[in-house]
Amino acid sequence: MTIVLKQEEQMKDIKVLCAEDHLKTKELYKEILENLFENITCASDGEEAKNLFLKNSFDIIITDINMPKLNGLELAKFVKQNHKDCAIIITSAYSDFEILSEVIDLGVDGYFLKPIDSQKFIDKLLSIANKIQISKKSRHYEALLREYKDAIDQSSIVSKTDTKGIITYVNDSFCKISGYTPEELLKKPHNIIRHPDMPSSAFKDMWGSLKSKKPWNGVVKNLKKDGGFYYVNAHVVPILNENDEVEEYIAIRHDITELESYKRNLEDKLTQSTKEIVNTQKEIIQTMGQVAEKRSMETGAHVKRVATYSYMLARLIGLNEDEAKLLEQASPMHDIGKVAIPDQILNKKGPLTEDERKEMQTHTAVGYELLKHSKRELLQTAAIVAHEHHEFWNGLGYPRKLKGEEIHIYGRITAIADVYDALGHDRVYKKAWPIEKIISYFQDELGEQFDPKLTEIFLKNIDYFEVTRKNFEK
Fold first, then answer.
1. Is the confidence at residue 107, as pLDDT, over 60?
2. 461 with 317: CB under 8 angstroms?
3. Burial of 217 by CB count in 10 Å (0-12 exposed, 13-18 middle, 19+ buried)?
4. Angle at the Cα of 308 (from 304 to 312), degrees rounded to 5?
5. Where do the CATH 3.30.450.20 domains begin and end in the chain?
6. Which residue, among 393, 395, 404, 408, has the nearest Cα to 444 in the 3D structure?
7. Where in the chain is the domain with CATH 3.40.50.2300?
8. Which residues have C-beta within 8 Å of that of residue 408, sequence separation ≥ 6?
9. How far apart are CA 402 and CA 399, in angstroms?
10. Strand 157-161 relative to strand 246-255: parallel, antiparallel, unpaired?
11. Rounded CA gap, 437 and 423, in Å?
12. In Å, how far are 173, 280, 314, 316, 423 from 303, measured between CA atoms?
């Protein structure tokens, strides 16, 4: 594989540290990285990478989990403790399910199973590098804004009003920023520059302070004569006469339009970055769910279908969009515990013995144990689904023999979605059932295996689910 980018496309100011003990893999990474970045450093183990990190400043660290001296997870923890903004990509030759929760909780920017998909790896690197460059530019702009603010502080926008808010004086800076002449402003109410975006509560607060003879400070959005706007940081002071009565008000303002506009731009970018982090977590969860399915010789599409059916049923029974989406994102991990089940049991074509059946059932508890320690809502929900999707409404399920509404609603929903998909597709131990037989099964198990109300709603909308199932198969 050869990657060629124009020189101007390389990220010249991004510093990358790659920690990989496998020589051929390191060479592959080096080829990719040298065509993307100019400043590349390689380490052969975690300890060497740690020492390099202590002596240098890096923007991106790529590390394998399994390395001598100091593993990739320990390195990632150390980096995050000392430089939380450093981007980290973790790679692994194995499905390290036991540390999945820790990897996600660390807030890593990417997680790749070997052999890596080169194009996805490149796309992720470019996405991370782009965000880093935006962040660097933001810091540069923040420094510039501080200089601008110092310059603005040297001049002020000044006006005076009488006790009724009628303008009695404006300086040149006021006229310049508002676009009005002195003649157009004098003897006019000060609300001539009031912007409709400013709530009446803000002015109620201001007048409450001023009538109490106290100064008022705040950010105000004002309206220009031409319909534009500007932001000011306003300091309004009541001027008292010899009788301690308010005679007039003086307002001294500083133009902060650039600062406020930049602040809102940063807020938008922060919101976008947060969404990207959440999406990365969702991708990792779906990937791990697919890996679990592939171990049991099932198609990875099973977890996607179960996720979709769970979302559909959640909305049909009245859960709101946020709850339904959360379940959709968590349900791909419902069988993650199967990673602990031996292949000879997991892929057995004939009926299981009693001992084998009991061992197979442990996958619910194993999945729960893998996920329950995370503080993130998404993984907490996945832990519930993994633990309870084999509980029966009549209390005869497993692992805890919960009954009725003791079973979490997410577990009851996923149970229906999982069985519906399993019955409708070939498995190592059976052929796909026709829809008539599937419907009959759910009718028989209504109130036994499955929540009766959920099952009635599901069967009432079975055509809707069948259309969706067929669309998956196109």
1. yes
2. no
3. exposed
4. 170
5. 155-255
6. 393
7. 7-149
8. 384, 388
9. 8
10. antiparallel
11. 9
12. 64, 17, 16, 20, 14
Query: Tens digits of per-residue pLDDT, 156-212?
Result: 788 889 998 899 988 888 898 999 999 999 999 988 999 998 888 888 888 888 888
Q: Which residue has the tokens 């599937």?
A: 438
Q: Is the predicted pLDDT of residue 296 greater than 60, yes or no?
A: no
Q: What's the CA gap between 452 and 448, in Å, rounded?
A: 8
Residue 449 is classified by DSSP as T
Q: Measured between alpha carbons, how far is 29 from 122 in angstroms, rounded to an integer?
A: 10
The β-bridge relationship of strands 229-240 and 246-255 is antiparallel
For 185, the token pair is 């402003």
For 271, counting Cβ atoms within 10 Å of its Cβ (0-12 exposed, 13-18 middle, 19+ buried), the class is: exposed
Is-contact 385 334, C-beta < 8 A? yes
Within 8 A by CB and 6+ apart from 226, the residues are: 179
Encoding tokens for residue 281? 């977590």
Phi, psi dihedrals of residue 38, rounded to the nearest 5°: -95, -25
Q: Does domain 7-149 have CATH number 3.50.50.60?
A: no
Average pLDDT taken over every residue of the chain: 84
Percentage of the residues of the chain whose pLDDT score is greater than 70: 86
Say whether 250 sits in a helix, a strand or coil.
strand
Give the model's confidence band at 295: pLDDT under 50 very low, under 70 low, under 90 confident, else very high.
very low
If DSSP codes are grouped into helix, strand and coil, which group holds residue 450? strand
Pair of tokens at residue 123: 């796309």
CB atoms within 10 A of CB 306: 27
CATH superfamily ID and name for 155-255: PAS domain (3.30.450.20)
What residues does 41 pair with on adjacent strands?
A: 17
Rounded CA separation 341/360 (Å): 6
Q: For residues 448 and 392, is the Cβ–Cβ distance under 8 A? A: yes
Q: Pinpoint the residues of the chain covered by CATH 1.10.3210.10.
A: 264-472
What the block records as the tokens of 70 is: 């100091």
Which structure tokens are listed for 308?
């979709």
Tally the C-alpha atoms within 13 A of residue 412's C-alpha that lie toward its C-beta: 24
Q: In the CATH hierarchy, which fold is given to the domain comprising 264-472? A: Hypothetical protein af1432 (1.10.3210)
For residue 161, the cross-strand partners are 167, 249
Could you tell me the pTM of the whole model?
0.47
DSSP state of 242: T
* Tens-digit pLDDT profile for residues 254-290: 888 777 777 767 666 665 655 665 665 566 565 555 5
CA distances in angstroms from 38 to 7, 25, 87, 126, listed in the order given: 9, 19, 17, 13
- pLDDT-derived band at 58, boundaries 50, 70, 90: very high
